[in-house]
Amino acid sequence: MVIAPITIRSTETRTFNGLGCPAEWFLEKQNPEPGKKVFFIRGNALHTAVEWYALNGWGASLNTLVDIAQTYVEEQLEEAALLDMDILETSKQKAEGLYVQADKDVTAWYNQVVAQEVKPYQYLQGTFDAEVVLEVEAPDFHLRTSADAIFHSAKRGPHVIDWKTGSKSASDLQLFVYWFAMRDMGMVTNSDVRGWFHYVAYAQPIAHPYATYPGDQFMYEYIATAEQRRLSGPYLPTPSFLCNYCLQRGGCPLYADDQEAACNNIKRSISFREEEEV
Fold it and tell me: Residue 173 half-sphere exposure, CB side, CA atoms within 13 Å?
């Protein structure tokens, strides 16, 4: 399988799984679904309000932030209607409920962070930058991602926060990638990740505080290995309806005309990599 080189983004977790078939991820990049996903609209509505708040200071009112989030929702729905795009809903989130959900998310975030109802924000007591671009140019990869927020505490140093509107399903790896980039850029020297995922929909929104950082060397090798495998395999199939449109079916052990040869090719690739690692 040949995939055009592309910058790693830490939020694309399938880039980092190493062994999984990347066809679904690749097809989404080359042929985006002709529609807008409600959970993206919901998440981006909150992020838009938070970013506006970070840029315009701590004096912004809650009503202003709710208006910004709901305006974002309105713009997305109007654009979808204008371009005749589908709104891709889920069983838990419908398009008609996005305005109310934006109000709930922004209000919860405001109370938990600005009003400091969540205790950790009481001791941070500082300003934060939103959508902070983090970039690492390394011999083996080019990593470019962005952190939702970096708080600046005079006493406790930088804290990286990732806002979540969904369920508690994030991996510490995302925080590790941020911390690796921040250390490489000279923003921090701590060996422990000071930060967390903030789930605004829950009464206890803080998760994974101060995760144990596995070290710069581990992260470098991990990202480099994931990028190499994304570019050249081995790839193990994960069947889905997208397989019908995959241009790599000829090398897949599920769909190739010569399935035995395809399986042996993957086995040889895995065996070769194991020999390299030894």
Answer: 18
